[in-house]
Fold this sequence. Notes:
Blueprint: H1 4-16, E1 21-26, E2 29-34, E3 44-45, H2 64-67, H3 76-84, E4 87-90, E5 95-98, E6 114-115, E7 120-126, E8 129-134, E9 139-144, E10 151-152, E11 157-163
Antiparallel strand pairs: 1-2, 2-3, 4-11, 5-7, 5-10, 6-9, 7-8, 9-11
Amino acid sequence: MFKLSEIKELIKLVDETSVHELEIENEGTRLLIRKPGKSEIVTVQAPVAAPTYTVAPQAAIPNPQAQSSDSGHTSVGETKEYASNLHKIVSPMVGTFYSSSSPDTAPYVSTGSKVGEKTTVCIIEAMKLMNELEAEVKGEIVEILAENGQLVEYGQPLFLVKPE
């Protein structure tokens, strides 16, 4: 994992030189810094061996009837099974959550969207850098837990995905 001070220093060095792009991999974490051109996005990928998070039953889905539109009847047993089968996509950093690349474009994903491991689901802006967040799991978006423009914390759940 890169320290914030190291990232700031690398950005400063790239900015002060004729280097247009710098890519560094350290302990499974990849950092890519590009001098901005026309609306470029800087991508930071999480380590390949990222931990898998599971949703705590009932805590993540306080009202299961509101989530289910096909049948208005969900038993407590079904709620626990439903919640335990979901994958949480969490924020890898503190920043601002954006559901699309610009205000006048459609969101990357919405409830019901099918995603793959490399599907971009949102952007987290931190220190003026736009960081694309990938799904890391193949499945269907069940719920979006963050609002566009919302400040998010490190480790905060952003999406619930039903894995395939």
